[in-house]
Amino acid sequence: MSTPLSLDRIQHAPKALLHDHLDGGLRPATVLELADQFGYDDLPATELDALTEFFRTAAHSGSLERYLEPFAHTVGVMQTAEALHRVAYECVEDLAADNVVYAEIRFAPELHIDGGLSLDEVVDAVLAGFVDGERAAAGTGRAITVRCLVTAMRHAARSREIAELAIRFRDRGVVGFDIAGAEAGYPPTRHLDAFEYMRGNNARFTIHAGEAFGLPSIHEAIAFCGADRLGHGVRIVDDITVDEDGTAKLGRLASILRDKRIPLEMCPTSNVQTGAAASIAEHPFDKLARLRFRVTVNTDNRLISDTSMSQEMARLVEAFGYGWSDLERFTINAMKSAFIPFPERLAIIDDVIKPRYAVLVG
């Protein structure tokens, strides 16, 4: 590649996003307006610039637990159907503006019932926001498909209930299930009932694993829970050794992960901020990509991590010298791993991603 890819050029590329939290991607101005509209009085700042700066810096702590603290404020303003619809609608708008053509957005319905909404009403409001956002984006010439994952909090005891919610809404925009939250002390096997329910209903799920905790979390997610994908999975690198001559040797867990093509929903910027990686340049993404693991690029939390899909790709390009063919491969990896039916995945790959990359390369 003779000319490095710039952020501006990367913004024109089609993108597929598998790991993005709805409550981690609000616009700061929206947080302020919703707080004023619905009487949320606990914001750390009431001026837009100050609040924006708070979100940009508060989570950059080197700890997953501290990284999660600012979510109290975004969740705090998302307790009505109107607020949930607006946040979902703006999420689609922002992703479409970044040329994301497919996205799976996840959120935890159990965190949005303090205002009196039922779990079903919460999901209804979010899905309506996605539909309206898709329609508006198409009207501007930026077609995007957005689907939803419902998340259960791993420290709580509602995962079976949330899995049942996923199945109730499976034909209305919910394509899967997830567990999230602090990993240490909350292994995925605590939620076996929920995962068995999903498998029993021929449904798909991903598990946050190998982000703030090590190989045991990944092993449980794969061997006992049967995860279709891994959220982050950064610590799988601990099961890979590299000899002095550069030869990589995979342990049994890393081997089965690669052999089964289990997708890794990697979020480089977030991983640095939570301490899962020391820097983008030291992130295991490149090692895993070169070893042909199914790596995908994701934002995790666009507000909290102050990022976008284009910025994530640009940071990887700067660190590892990737070109268009690499970014296309990561994008197709994500699209292959999406939880929508195979014909829909194939149509987006063949009719959208490949043709638009062909134009960029040409």
UniProtKB/TrEMBL annotation:
Molecular function terms from GO: 2'-deoxyadenosine deaminase activity; adenosine deaminase activity; zinc ion binding
Active site, UniProt feature: 211 (proton donor)
Catalytic activity: adenosine + H2O + H(+) = inosine + NH4(+); 2'-deoxyadenosine + H2O + H(+) = 2'-deoxyinosine + NH4(+)
InterPro entries to which the protein is assigned, alphabetical: A_deaminase, A_deaminase_dom, Ado/ade_deaminase, Metal_Hydrolase
Family: Belongs to the metallo-dependent hydrolases superfamily. Adenosine and AMP deaminases family. Adenosine deaminase subfamily.
Job description of the protein: Catalyzes the hydrolytic deamination of adenosine and 2-deoxyadenosine.
Binding site for Zn(2+): 19, 21, 208, 300
GO biological process per UniProt: adenosine catabolic process; hypoxanthine salvage; inosine biosynthetic process; nucleotide metabolic process; purine ribonucleoside monophosphate biosynthetic process
Name of this protein: Adenosine deaminase
Keywords noted in UniProt: Hydrolase, Metal-binding, Nucleotide metabolism, Zinc
Cofactor(s) this protein requires: Zn(2+)
Positions bearing the site annotation: Important for catalytic activity: 232
GO-annotated cellular components: cytosol
EC number in record: 3.5.4.4
Top-level lineage group: Bacteria
Phylogenetic lineage: Bacteria, Bacillati, Actinomycetota, Actinomycetes, Mycobacteriales
Adenosine deaminase domain residues: 14-354
Cofactor binding note from Swiss-Prot or TrEMBL: Binds 1 zinc ion per subunit.
Binding site for substrate: 21, 23, 181
Leader sequence residues: none
Alphabetical list of Gene3D superfamilies matching this protein: Metal-dependent hydrolases (3.20.20.140)
